[in-house]
Amino acid sequence: xxxxxxxxxxxxxxxxxxxxxxxxxxxxxxxxxxxxxxxxxxxxxxxxxxxxxxxxxxxxxxxxxxxxxxxxxxxxxxxxxxxxxxxxxxxxxxxxxxxxxxxxxxxxxxxxxxxxxxxxxxxxxxxxxxxxxxxxxxxxxxxxxxxxxxxxxxxxxxxxxxxxxxxxxxxxxxxxxxxxxxxxxxxxxxxxxxxxxxxxxxxxxxxxxxx
Length: 211
Ligand code: PRP
Ligand code: URA
Description:
Blueprint: E1 4-6, H1 10-20, H2 26-44, E2 50-56, E3 61-67, E4 72-78, H3 85-91, E5 96-97, E6 99-104, E7 111-117, E8 126-130, E9 133-134, H4 138-149, E10 157-160, E11 163-164, H5 166-175, E12 180-183, E13 185-186, E14 189-190, E15 196-197, H6 203-208
Parallel strand pairs: 1-12, 4-5, 4-6, 4-8, 8-10, 9-11, 10-12, 11-13
Antiparallel strand pairs: 2-3, 6-7, 14-15
Helix pairs in contact: 1-2, 2-3
């Protein structure tokens, strides 16, 4: 089963609390999501392997280290995942960006696919799939299946979210046991509308001011 990483750094907890507050506006919500994504991205990349490289500093020759291995693709689930792209590109500027468009049907709460555009060499990359909300887990699970259908290797995908519900974590772990999940918070449960409780409401609407 994939590992669940709950990244409980004080800065992340503090910033998430401000995001959760109902009176926090879109400008601050966007800024805080960007800041938290950078803090989480730092932890998500902690085990990226290094390799020796020979370099010359202005003073001496040395054997130094650089990140080894596969290049990275950042894949946001539209819309709310877009709020995590800039933070990840700030850390990994050479990453390519793909997009997966899914929305939850308001009645069934099941994801509906409407867009998919991925880097042409996606199967050679380490993939960071990002979406702030992991509620029922339907959207993340479908997006992970789409990535695998396009050839991404098992074990090459990490899921980065912000707030997760136990139901969503259980679904991703059952459907995709090779995927590690990184979240800032594990909340209590889902309500009758499949919203996370206490959560932060509708992440896409709060990010883009559409409500
Ligand atoms: C939200 C959120 C996730 C999904 C999570 O998107 O950004 O993609 O719901 O729910 P799930 O785990 O139950 O699938 P939404 O469908 O509201 O679309 P939007 O981002 O375009 O608003
Ligand atoms: N999508 C959201 O944006 N928020 C939730 O709480 C659940 C799904």
